[in-house]
Amino acid sequence: MIEGSGLIGRGERRLAGYCGLYCGNCEVFRAWEEGDVEFLKKEAEEDRIPVEEVRCEGCRSEVVMYWCRRCDIKRCASERGVDFCHECPEFPCPLILRFRMSRPHHEPVFENMKAIEGEGIDKWLQDQDRRWRCMSCGRRVTFYDTLCRACGSSLIK
Q: Which of 74, 90, 104, 148 is 20 to 30 A from 24, alpha carbon to alpha carbon?
């Protein structure tokens, strides 16, 4: 299991999704971590759920967004005793293939799992933390940000 000592604290490992997503750049995670009440309210209204339900501390935490609570990939990986889908003998299965194609930010999950396997979880988490920051001010950004919310710099490379 990925819990253990390393360069990244145990708490940061909660940001490594079983599917290979990095939770640290999820819009809901960022809003929850930063106390962006307006975003949380807007998300609650769009999803027709109480604002108290719009919170997440990462895939491997006890506090996850409602869609992550019912995640078939998380359930499957847990049942099979694997940390990431690529460790399963049935990888790639129809479940992860559908997931990968379901949203633009899901597309890099195979690349991410390959990096995790090759470089290790700690290095991957460090690389993801660096990758999902504004190059101008260092603020953490989300999958879909095009401008930094802190300094207004373009995030498009």
A: 90
Q: Which position has the token pair 């049935």?
A: 90
d(CA 151, CA 32): 20
- Rounded Cα–Cα distance for residues 6 and 80 (Å): 24
Q: How far apart are CA 96 and CA 41, in angstroms?
A: 30
CA distance 57 to 123: 20
Q: Which two tokens stand for residue 92?
A: 């790639």
Euclidean distance between CA atoms 117 and 120, whole angstroms:
6
Q: Which residue has the tokens 């708490």?
A: 11
- Which among 101, 126, 117 has a CA at the least distance from the CA of 22? 126
Q: Residue holding tokens 């005793």?
A: 81
